[in-house]
Specification:
Layout (H helix, E strand, L loop, with lengths): L1 H11 L13 H9 L7 H12 L5 E8 L4 E8 L5 H17 L10 H9 L5 E4 L2 H8 L3 E6 L5 E5 L28 H11 L5 E8 L5 E8 L5 H12 L9 H8 L11 E3 L2 H8 L4 E5 L5 E4 L11 H4 L2 H31 L6 H10 L7 H21 L5 H18 L5 H14 L5 H21 L1 H17 L1 E2 L2 E2 L51 H6 L1
Antiparallel strand pairs: 1-2, 2-4, 3-5, 4-5, 6-7, 7-9, 8-10, 9-10, 11-12
Helix pairs in contact: 7-10, 12-16, 12-17, 12-18, 14-15, 14-16, 14-17, 17-18
Length: 541
């Protein structure tokens, strides 16, 4: 009994005087703040709050007198996080509303429970007894009410955080399809998926990452469809993250990926709710992060990077052609400059005689070898592309296009590069723009330089060696333990209906094999459209 009293006494009278010491490091302050508990004295609780937040002017404390007994109370919130109209309604309920009701005659020992029961009917109310929980709720847009004589606080949902309006994502444009894109609010993003996948088996688990930022992270999956081993692996990798702050989903991506040194993305990122919903229906897991519109999806494979929503929203011939065009464009952007360097340097017999004469004539007066020409032009174009992205949106594309034209023409006139090199670099750039995923395009741009160097050093044997090396590397990659190059390596013939081309929706009756072992069938068979009328319909007529 004595031990219980000592524990209660220690918990009810937390010592916050040490927080006034300016010599404390952030880790020491965080440790002290987690041990702070609310006490019955309202003044002590407010003094504790001032000791923690210091002179922060955005933490507002509004003193009130509650009930006929004029019991001291305080309404605490963070400016810019709450709805001011809702906050005024709560303040009115605390003062005038409780003064006019029978609740107003209660004592300071029972007013806490009376007010909690009264507000629980109209808003989200939580009880907290320590500063850490109270502050977490305050940063989520809640207001805290503290009463004198009560060692607890009530937090009320008064969220009013200004967020960006839902609009079409700039990084993933489509011709036909939904125009909605994720925003920086995790609640809004989760609701956008819930509107598309309305099953109650869409489960969401929430975590808090970052000792200082305390960023909300949500893991979403369809219970019974996603593999339990996959969900547990995602959960464990996220819980292992120990860092001071998470400002974007890219932080999480680097902590949870299988191959941190790979140039290929092993975690899929997207701004489109329809893409996330479609991947959840395949048995994958989505990871949402507060304050960023980019959602991570795991596991992923190489061929997801060449797919776009247009492939599925347009008719089959159009969608299949566009996807095949992107696959060809990706490999052309990787191989074409290196192939040209190798062919001109070592394999002149590959060119027709007239074309070889034209290429040789264009190189007259150029003092640099072909390898140097291509590398320089590729570097110049990469600089122009990066400059176009970083410049203001109104002038960025114009500057990059004009710069490429002016520099290319000036380089040819000055005899620094030959015209065929400019043509090859331009074709490579156009092919790289067909890649629908930015991170995938970056990988192609990096691999391009390796192909150029190997082609200039070893000819087509170097290109062949580089290509086989890339294929072997992709075959060995893993994304959360799943083969990255599936269904090509390992070979899964049943999944080829949606790889380089796609088949009709009525023919894709099964989900991807590896990701949906629990529930492989997603559509009934025999739904191919036809013009004949069933016998039952004929009899009815």
């Amino acid at each position: 009994m004595r031990l219980f009293k000592n524990f209660f006494k220690k918990k009810s009278h937390s010592n916050f005087g040490d927080l006034k010491d300016d010599r404390l490091d952030i880790s020491q302050r965080e440790a002290l703040e987690k041990d702070l508990f609310l006490v019955p004295s309202l003044e002590d609780n407010l003094e504790m709050l001032r000791a923690v937040v210091g002179p922060s002017t955005d933490v507002i404390t509004r003193r009130l007198r509650v009930g006929r007994g004029q019991i001291p109370a305080a309404l605490v919130h963070i400016k810019g996080f709450v709805d001011t109209l809702l906050l005024e309604r709560i303040a009115s309920t605390l003062t005038l509303g409780m003064l006019e009701s029978p609740v107003g005659s209660t004592s300071r020992h029972t007013i806490f429970s009376e007010f909690r029961d009264r507000l629980a009917q109209s808003t989200d109310v939580k009880e907290v007894d320590n500063f850490d929980d109270m502050w977490t709720n305050l940063t989520q847009g809640h207001a805290a009410v503290l009463f004198d004589g009560t060692a607890k606080a009530l937090t009320l949902n008064t969220q009013g955080i200004a967020t960006r309006q839902i609009e079409e994502p700039a990084s993933e444009t489509v011709i036909r399809g939904p125009r909605e894109g994720f925003v920086e609010s995790i609640e809004t993003n989760v609701s956008m998926i819930r509107r598309r996948v309305r099953t109650p088996n869409l489960w969401i688990e929430q975590f808090t990452l970052g000792d200082l930022t305390r960023t909300q992270v949500a893991v979403m999956y369809i219970k019974g469809l996603a593999s339990e081993e996959l969900v547990q692996e995602v959960r464990q990798r996220i819980q292992r993250i120990k860092i001071d702050g998470i400002l974007e989903s890219g932080y999480i991506e680097e902590f949870i990926e299988d191959n941190p040194f790979s140039v290929f993305p092993t975690t899929f990122r997207t701004e489109r709710p329809d893409r996330v919903a479609s991947m959840l229906l395949e048995g994958r897991v989505a990871i949402f992060t507060q304050a960023t519109p980019f959602v991570l999806v795991v596991p992923m494979n190489f061929f997801m990077l060449t797919q776009a929503p247009d492939d599925y929203y347009e008719k089959l011939p159009i969608g299949a052609f566009l996807r095949l065009l992107r696959v060809v464009g990706f490999w052309m952007s990787v191989v074409l400059p290196g192939f040209y360097v190798a062919a001109v340097t070592f394999h002149n017999e590959l060119f027709p005689t007239d074309l070889l004469i034209s290429i040789s004539a264009s190189k007259e007066g150029v003092p640099f070898p072909i390898l140097f020409e291509v590398l320089v032009m590729e570097l110049v174009f990469e600089l122009l592309r990066e400059a176009g992205i970083r410049l203001p949106r109104a002038i960025g594309p114009a500057i990059s296009i004009v710069g490429a034209l002016v520099l290319g023409d000036a380089a040819i006139r000055a005899g620094l590069v030959s015209p065929p090199v400019v043509i090859i670099v331009a074709l490579t750039a156009i092919a790289s723009f067909t890649v629908p995923t930015f991170s995938f395009g970056i990988a192609a741009r990096l691999l391009r330089f390796a192909f150029i160097i190997l082609g200039g050093a070893f000819g087509l044997f170097g290109i062949q060696f580089a290509f086989l090396g890339v294929i072997a590397y992709l075959t060995g990659l893993r994304s959360f333990g799943y083969p990255y190059f599936a269904p090509v390596g390992p070979l899964i013939l049943s999944d080829f209906k949606d790889v380089f081309l796609r088949t009709w929706w009525w023919d894709m009756t099964r989900r991807p094999f590896l990701e949906s072992l629990r529930e492989p069938v997603r559509a009934a068979g025999g739904q191919r459209p036809h013009q004949s009328i069933e016998k039952e319909e004929k009899e009815k007529r």
